[in-house]
Amino acid sequence: xxxxxxxxxxxxxxxxxxxxxxxxxxxxxxxxxxxxxxxxxxxxxxxxxxxxxxxxxxxxxxxxxxxxxxxxxxxxxxxxxxxxxxxxxxxxxxxxxxxxxxxxxxxxxxxxxxxxxxxxxxxxxxxxxxxxxxxxxxxxxxxxxxxxxxxxxxxxxxxxxxxxxxxxxxxxxxxxxxxxxxxxxxxxxxxxxxxxxxxxxxxxxxxxxxxxxxxxxxxxxxxxxxxxxxxxxxxxxxxxxxxxxxxxxxxxxxxxxxxxxxxxxxxxxxxxxxxxxxxxxxxxxxxxxxxxxxxxxxxxxxxxxxxxxxxxxx
Length: 314
Ligand SMILES: [Mg+2]
Description:
With 314 residues, the protein is an alpha/beta fold.
């Protein structure tokens, strides 16, 4: 039997989507952004690709990370949850500590992931329990992510996801929007849940926040000229670092309560969107590149003064 490209856990029957909340845009360098977008539009549909993070980029800020679902769920064994919580409390401050050198940090991250993998192995989750855990979770898709994703599928836009999350959870979520096994242009680079029959056998831990920059470089993918990059952490910006892609518009989502990090985001991202952002801006950009007409709803949303500066650049 042919291996499924994007194996899932079951169906995400309890799909949830954020509603639209007002968002604020900060554009790092309007002149530069204008020229990037102009180039992107002139090279058109044949040269566009998406590179994106998953947790809290495709899902909203109020959503738990795909990994955390299992640590937080009432359906997970208590012993497993205790272990995961203690690792989380110990390693997250290390992950976030900017004063620790990257090699040192990678060592800690590797150690963390090994412990997590062992804990998952011991807990022996089944697919149906894992699916129930997803269905009882509070993962929300960002508003307008669905039409954005559907447009990418329809137009065969390469869609590369680099995530420190879990493959089957991500696949189950995306499969609730569109058939993904036939989406030839999608690639997913993340950690793998390996099941033996119906029981989780092990986790193949391949991606951490600190190794994200290296993942696509060794993927063997032939990249196009223009990228729309999407992320919610400074480290996401580096997903395309070693790819020598000539043109990129990077969009960073920043939660209102992390507003003090704006300067850091501004140094990296062309557009920082503050709030619990929707996919309106990526969708508008993509539509411009594709030469598609916007729906009345998106046009109306985009006519708000929050987008005045961006509208002038298009
Ligand atoms: Mg993220």
